[in-house]
Amino acid sequence: MTTIEARGLARRFRSGKSDVNAVCGVDLDVAAGEIIGFVGPNGAGKTTTLRMLTTLLRPTSGTAHIAGIDLVRDPAGVRRASGYVAQSGGVDPNARVAEELCLQGRLYRLSRADAVSRATRLLHDFDLNTVRDRQVRTLSGGQRRRMDIAMGLMHSPSVLFLDEPTTGLDPQSRGNVWDHVRALREDAGTTVFLTTHYLDEADALCDRLFVIDHGRIVARGTPDELKRGISGDLVTIEVSGDTDAAKVALAGRPGIHELAVTDRSVRLVVDNGERAVVDVMQALQAHGVGMRSIRLARPTLDDVFLTLTGRSLRDGDA
Ligand SMILES: Nc1ncnc2c1ncn2[C@@H]1O[C@H](COP(=O)(O)OP(=O)(O)OP(=O)(O)O)[C@@H](O)[C@H]1O
């Protein structure tokens, strides 16, 4: 089932005398239970797209449905079906954690009893029980971010939008937030659509990525598909015998784009690394060529990003 569907979604801003086309006709299809990463350099149009999908900003043109509900015709319905966690959560720093969660539930018209029971569940799920009576301003960065996410989940939305959920967190807290995001999908089948500036996060956490640049989607696919789309995988084989014999064994095999022989090793650029490793081992064995080691390397998402946008995400940050 498609949970997020957008067609030709666009937003233009008037800036002085000129127009800024922040988002220029974005199509999105996200299935229920997917974790989607929305990545792009600074100013690419991520936040503007997210603000449209969460009804905070009206599209200039295009349509979108969230959980089957029309964004423009029924924005209140979309807000009931989805949760949004902004970059800086709008929580009162002096409020107490459990009380603030209950208040959020009441804003979504949960009964008092339902709000308490939902808050109790989320405090448990997000490891916040020990800080339930603390003031929000006393929380650590990771606790604070987990609380922001819990706030977005009080009304049990089927879709959760997260704007840079781990920015500024230390590696351990980031890993912890990832675990909680994964658990949302495992336990409740929640669809998660997140923006991130961390390509390792996109790689480790997301099922699929949409790469946006200059307001347009320039690539989409699983992290592996995107990496493969760049240049193929790299297989390096160290042979114990004659490298020329290895070359004869491997030349012209399907899926191998490039074959280079050095002193003791053979270097291949291949379509699909896993498949090629098996194929290469069989071919060498069949030709009686001994092998010391075989190594598979993939282009990183940084390579993908650089190729697609001409910028590294890190440059963008700088
Ligand atoms: N209210 C506005 N008025 C004029 N231009 C705007 C407005 N909001 C955004 N823009 C412009 O639209 C473009 C897209 O901005 P957006 O904030 O969506 O990018 P982003 O991908 O979220 O960037 P970042 O990674 O820096 O948060 C930018 O050129 C930005 O300057």
UniProtKB/TrEMBL annotation:
Gene3D superfamilies tied to this protein: P-loop containing nucleotide triphosphate hydrolases
A GO molecular function held by the record: ATP hydrolysis activity
Domain of life from the UniProt record: Bacteria
Domain ABC transporter: 4-239
UniProt keyword terms in alphabetical order: ATP-binding, Nucleotide-binding, Transport
Pfam families: ABC_tran, DrrA1-3_C
GO biological process: daunorubicin transport; doxorubicin transport
Family: Belongs to the ABC transporter superfamily. Drug exporter-1 (DrugE1) (TC 3.A.1.105) family.
Protein's name in the database: ABC-2 type transport system ATP-binding protein
Organism: Catenuloplanes indicus
